[in-house]
Amino acid sequence: MHRSNQAVANAAPQSDEVPGHKTVPARSVRSIIKGFALMASIVATHAFAQTPAATPAPANGVYDLLIGTYTGGKSEGLYVYRFDAKTGDATPVSVAKTVNPSYLVVSGDRRYVYAVNEGPGDNGPATQRGGISAFRFDAPSGQLTFLNTVSSEGNDPCYLSLSPDGKYLLTANYSVAADPGGSFAVFPLQADGQVGTSVLTVHHEGGGPVKGRQDNSHVHSTVFSPDGHYLFTQDLGADKLYSYRYTPDGSRGLFGPTEVRYTDVKAGSGPRHLVFGADGRHAYLTSELAATVSVFDYNDGKLKLAQVVPLTEPGFKGQVGAAAIHLSPDGRFVYASNRGDANEIVIFAVDAANGHLKLVGRQSSLGKSPREFAIDPTGQWLIVGNQGSDTMYVFRRDQQTGLLEANPKRVDIGSPVDFKLVSPS
């Protein structure tokens, strides 16, 4: 369910009105920006903090585990399990029926959960847009209550993030039809947890050398910098990491391009997910098509390539597909998933001096297509879902070596994709 390009958004006009679509040429790049400015009344509605915070440790060691899936097969939607960090056991609690909730984000106060509705997919009508759904979440009981759904303003939304101030929800739309190319969209969050309609949509254009995967732009993630001043959008189709300045006061538009505008990566590599290191001075990128992890030095909105390491073993000849990337809670290890014929979690140690990575091990996911995974807040467990084989495995993690121990716990669940852990207390 994935396709590809290149883009730059011009700074938003300094206005209190919400304009319609506007096309702005920029060299050979075009950006369409819809609805730049926000009414002050929208901003004033936020009575709670949405920004993700460190998950507190529950007294009994039991977390809520939210699992996003692809529906249409054995899955019905968004699942809630109880996860015991003392034993690694996961017990089903509830399910909220919704279509393809393949990526999730939880509000900072743990009262709301947001999910993409990834569609239409490869076989759907090109004119059909994906969706973003909001749920009220009662963490103590593990129950989700549907609030509302809005259009994602694109096709195949595949990522969600919250702005540092908790006022906006952002999504990456992998593709947009009938105007080819990916986009990212920005949605205001209401005081009751509902998602407002998009106030800003930025379309990318361009492409790369890999036919069938980079024929168009494909925005795959929207990630804020540690200081909260910048947004990076990873474009798998254009082989670019676009950078935008976040100015919620509207003085320079909500999101405007930085002076650098974008960071190039190797042609045909297909950048996918970006995470920042524990010290905020380094960033780590999975490139799906090349199956690599790139290390960048970060400073004030600028990324400088420092290292590229492969995920595959020397001589590997099969299909690859790098996907998720996460750090251990202590920041000492980086983990990345690789799909295709590899189907494994690759483990790197982080050099505290320069952020560089050193391979320390790899672990089979024991299934097909490990797209996403999560490390629990205690650092004791790594939970990975095999989208292609309807299984989830809970691996015990050695916090000193970073390695995953054999004989994980298995949970059967239809097309598991994304995982978020929340303290119910």
List the SSEs and their pairings:
Layout: E1 23-26, E2 29-32, H1 40-44, E3 62-69, E4 77-84, E5 90-97, E6 104-106, E7 112-117, E8 131-138, E9 143-151, E10 155-162, E11 168-175, E12 183-188, E13 200-203, E14 219-224, E15 230-235, E16 240-246, E17 255-264, E18 271-276, E19 282-287, E20 292-299, E21 302-310, E22 322-327, E23 333-338, E24 344-350, E25 357-364, E26 373-375, E27 381-386, E28 391-396, E29 409-412, E30 416-422
CATH homology group of the domain at 1-36 and 107-264: YVTN repeat-like/Quinoprotein amine dehydrogenase
Low-pLDDT residue intervals, each spanning 5 or more residues: 1-53
Q: What does the overall shape look like?
A: globular
User: Mind summarizing the main beta sheet?
Assistant: 4 strands, antiparallel
Beta-strand portion reads over 45%
The CATH class name of the domain at 1-36 and 107-264 reads Mainly Beta
Query: What count of helical segments does DSSP give?
Result: 1
Report the span from N to C terminus.
37 Å
Q: What order do the strands of the largest sheet run in, or round the barrel if closed?
A: 5-4-3-30
Computed structural class:
mainly beta
Q: Helicity level, as a percent range?
A: under 10%
Q: Provide the CATH topology of the domain at 1-36 and 107-264.
A: Methylamine Dehydrogenase, Chain H
Q: Report mean pLDDT, rounded to a whole number.
A: 87
Total E-strand runs: 30
- What does the radius of gyration come to? 20 Å
CATH architecture of the domain at 1-36 and 107-264: 7 Propeller
Can you offer a commentary on this structure?
The protein has one helix at residues 40-44; strands at residues 23-26, 29-32, 62-69, 77-84, 90-97, 104-106, 112-117, 131-138, 143-151, 155-162, 168-175, 183-188, 200-203, 219-224, 230-235, 240-246, 255-264, 271-276, 282-287, 292-299, 302-310, 322-327, 333-338, 344-350, 357-364, 373-375, 381-386, 391-396, 409-412, 416-422. The two termini are 37 Å apart. The protein has a domain at 1-36 and 107-264: Methylamine Dehydrogenase, Chain H, CATH 2.130.10. A hairpin with a 5-residue loop joins strand 4 and strand 5. The protein is globular, with a radius of gyration of 20 Å. With 425 residues, the protein is mostly beta strands. The strands form eight sheets. It has a four-stranded antiparallel sheet with strand order 5-4-3-30, with no helix packed on it. It has a four-stranded antiparallel sheet with strand order 6-7-8-9, with no helix packed on it. One of its GO terms (biological process) is glucose metabolic process. GO terms for molecular function: 6-phosphogluconolactonase activity. Residues 1-23 are annotated as: Disordered. Keywords: Carbohydrate metabolism, Glucose metabolism. Pfam families: Lactonase.
